[in-house]
Every structure is written in structure tokens, then in C-alpha cells.
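The data layer described in this paper is built around a simple, fixed record for each protein. We quote a single record here, exactly as it is kept in our systems:
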Amino acid sequence: MTISLSSYPPQQIAALEAAYNAAISRKRLRFAAGLVVFIVLLIVAGFGAEVAPKTFVEKIGNFVGYFDRILNLDTGKRVWTDPAEWFWGWQKWLKLLAETLLLSYVGTTIGALGAFGLNFFAAANLSPHPALRFVVRRSLEFCRTVPSIVFALIFVIAFGLGPMAGVLAIAIHSVGALGKLYSEQAENIDMKPLEGVRSTGASWMSAVRFAVLPQVMPGFASYTLLRFEINVREASVMGFVGAGGIGQELVVAVRKFFYSDVSAILLMIIVTVFVIDICTGWLRGRLFGSEQRI
């Protein structure tokens, strides 16, 4: 079977090529113009923020030099040549690291429960009343806008030094962050099951229970595990304001210029975060299946 392809006259082909080239040129011109505007705005923003490239170039050696110092023992040797001297306080640091993990776990759990209870009122497709949605959304914004370390400082003043201030700070910030993520997850559900449940005369609570929760729970669990990983890093900084955990020992080492201690504590925190990331990834795979994560 022979198939004949229609051919266009050379003049028409030339006209089509010219139109195509003109369209491509316009796209490239718009891209170039947008890139120029972006660069100009970036430069203006840099001047407004008093970013000094000259200072960065001149002082970058101090940054590199600090990392060189924290990898040296007091004897002048590299830290990996004498691990026993490097991790001389590992028992105390592990105890404080465990306190940090518990602080993060409790704060994340309280925050997740609070976000779970509020997110349905913040979702545009589920909230019973616009005024209630407005109030809940603004409350969640307040919780996540104020830095957690500021909350920790306030609670340290109120309740004194210790992990309690860190737990409360992480919990409040987690409510705001997870509440936002949960509500967006709820807004993207398939509305047909919800409409079907409502058509039976079911209450708002029953509609959420039977039509919404089965769709959003995998996403809620995934966001919660991610938030726990983030909160471990947050809790490591809480010690800078006396809210307990390994961060309290880290800030002491920084202030007293115990360079090798700084690197040892940082390494322990980094390894802990690596392990948590691997474990939460495995747990997500067990909960939802590897196929749904690809």
C-alpha cells in the first residue's frame, strides 16, 4: 500500500518557517527580558539588604578557617587520629541527644494532634463557616510565623530552663506548619465521596470521618514524619536559649572555643538526622507502599 504525502509549495514552507522562527525569537526575547529584570531586582535587593560581595570574598577565609580549627584537637593533631579524645564526652552527649529526640517527638506529637483538630476548619471546602475559617487560618499563620526559638525564649522566661520550653515551642510551631499542610491536603480531595455521604443526611463530623479521612491520612502521616525530622534540627538549636537538649552543650562548646567538641557534637547531630531520614523513609514505604512513593 502506497501512502502519498502532500507537499507544500516552497513559498508556503518558507512562510511557515519564518512564522516559527519569529515565534521562537519572541519567546527567547521574553526569556532574556525576564532574566535581565530578575538580575536587576536581585542586585537591588542585595543593595537593600546591605549584602557586600567584597566583604564575602575577604572574609570567606575565616569561614573555612573555623572548620579547619574544629577538626583539630588541642594537641594539634587531626580529630580522626584520636577518636577517644575527640569523643571524650560521648556518654553525656548521647544522653542530651536522647533528650533532644524525646523533646522533638513530644513536640511533634502535640503539634500534629493540634493541627489535625484545626485543619478541617481551615480548609475552604470543609470549613462550616467562612468566619471560622478566617480565624483558624490567621491563628495557624501566627503559630508558624513566629520563629520557634522566639517561642522557646518566651517559655524559658515563663517556665525556666529545661526541655519543657522546647517542647511547647516546637508544638506551637508544628501546629502552624502542619495545619497549613494538612488543610491544603484536605482541599485537594475528591469531593464526590464527600457529596455522597452528605446526600444521606450525615452530619459534618460523619462526612469528615467517612469521606475525608480515608483520602488524607496517608498525606497527613507523611507530613508528620517529615516534620519530626525537621523538629530534630529545631530542637538542636533550642539549647541556645536554654530549652534543653544537645544544643545547650553545643552553645557552651562554641562560646568556650572548645573546637573539637563542636565538631564532635555536630557530627553526632548530623548522623542522627541521617538515621532519622532513613528510618522515616522506610516507615513511609511500609505504611503506603513503595509504588505510591515513586
Notes: The domain at 88-293 is CATH 1.10.3720.10 (MetI-like fold). Residues 10-48 form the longest helix (39 residues). The mean pLDDT is 86.
